[in-house]
TrEMBL record:
Its main location: cytoplasm. Transmembrane segments: none annotated. Residues 10-101 form the Pyrroline-5-carboxylate reductase catalytic N-terminal domain. It catalyses: L-proline + NAD(+) = (S)-1-pyrroline-5-carboxylate + NADH + 2 H(+); L-proline + NADP(+) = (S)-1-pyrroline-5-carboxylate + NADPH + 2 H(+). SUPFAM superfamilies: 6-phosphogluconate dehydrogenase C-terminal domain-like (SSF48179), NAD(P)-binding Rossmann-fold domains (SSF51735). It comes from the Bacteria. Belongs to the pyrroline-5-carboxylate reductase family. Keywords: Amino-acid biosynthesis, Cytoplasm, NADP, Oxidoreductase, Proline biosynthesis. Catalyzes the reduction of 1-pyrroline-5-carboxylate (PCA) to L-proline. It is found in: Cytoplasm. This is Pyrroline-5-carboxylate reductase. InterPro entries: 6-PGluconate_DH-like_C_sf, NAD(P)-bd_dom_sf, P5C_Rdtase_cat_N, P5CR_dimer, Pyrroline-COOH_reductase. Its EC number is 1.5.1.2.
């Protein structure tokens, strides 16, 4: 039996905030106040006995003292939103930000220069507790605050910690956005299957099963991805012909490298 999670203030209950909140509730969250002005995701939690949804920070119940304030709004909204949460900065509260790009220093400018801030980057498989989050603790974060953030993030998947905050930008590009690249792969594979005469329903089933089956095999295996790829590729067979197209110098390796570099650069632009 694990300890219930202490009270959390969630700022922004959209796709990621909502996924994380449902994971915390499964883990036995003691109490949450959610600030969400318009998002439909918050409505799903409105009837939960431990959750209180409010539209503005002014409506947070007096006396509510969260152990963590989780910032799950868009980075572009941070400058306007953060000062309203400065009153929670203090030894009993850690700020856990999942905002892309926004630095610990920029968050501290909003909530208080001495605030304890953990910056993290989860991803949407958090919705089925298969997320992957990389986290970095800012200055002054105590061991207990780091452990609390670790527990909140572990409720929705695997967690890794890094010491260098700059790594969060390429992490955002790789694992934060990564599910989108896999879904794009499924989209274009399905279209290519239909182009070859496979009925759309069958193409959809085949591609979903292939992408998720390959992902599960990768997760279950100790082999390198390249080794698993080679195991599919019979010499002079069909896969070899496809890979000659996909692995050409200007194809997937170069495209992925450019895509990750572009997303990393965008994360840096969002630093604040
Ligand atoms: N989606 C993803 O895969 C990932 C996203 N992230 C990060 O998570 C954060 C949220 O992303 P995501 O969940 O996709 O975005 P969403 O737009 O789904 O969620 C953000 C929510 O915050 C609401 N909101 C806007 N302003 C405020 C405010 N001042 N106070 C409280 N709530 C507010 C939004 O309402 P409204 O829509 O009406 O403005 C929306 O419901 C971003 O910073 C993003 O970088 C991190 C990892 C992965
Ligand atoms: O696209 C974005 O900016 C966010 C961060 C990673 C995934 N979604």
């Amino acid at each position: 039996m694990t300890e219930p999670l202490p009270p959390v203030l969630l700022v922004g209950c959209g796709k990621m905030g909502g996924a994380m909140l449902s994971g915390w509730l499964e883990r036995g969250l003691s109490r949450a106040v959610v600030v969400e002005p318009h998002g439909p995701a918050a409505a799903a939690f409105a009837g939960d006995p431990v959750v209180r949804v409010v539209a503005t920070p002014e409506a947070i119940p007096a006396g509510f003292t969260p152990a963590a304030v989780v910032l799950a709004i868009k980075p572009q909204e941070a400058d306007a939103a953060l000062p309203a949460y400065a009153r929670f900065a203090g030894p009993d509260t850690v700020f856990l930000s999942i905002m892309a790009g926004r630095t610990v220093a920029a968050i501290r400018r909003g909530v208080g220069e001495d605030a304890a801030v953990v910056r993290a980057m989860p991803n949407t498989p958090a919705a089925i507790r298969r997320g992957f989050t990389v986290a970095c603790a800012g200055p002054g974060v105590t061991a207990a605050q780091r452990a609390l953030c670790g527990a909140l993030l572990a409720a929705v998947g695997e967690v890794a910690w890094v010491g260098k905050e700059e790594l969060l930008d390429p992490v955002t590009a790789v694992s934060g956005g990564g599910p989108a690249y896999v879904f794009l792969l499924a989209e274009v594979m399905e279209a290519a299957a239909v182009e070859q005469g496979i009925p759309r329903d069958l193409a959809r089933r085949m591609v979903r099963a292939t992408v998720s089956g390959a992902g599960a095999l990768l997760a279950a295996s100790d082999e390198e991805a390249a080794e698993l790829r080679r195991a599919v590729t019979s010499p002079k067979g069909t896969t070899e012909r496809a890979l000659a197209v996909l692995m050409a110098p200007d194809a997937w390796p170069a495209l992925m490298s450019r895509a990750i570099a572009a997303a990393t650069a965008r994360a840096r632009e969002l630093a604040g």
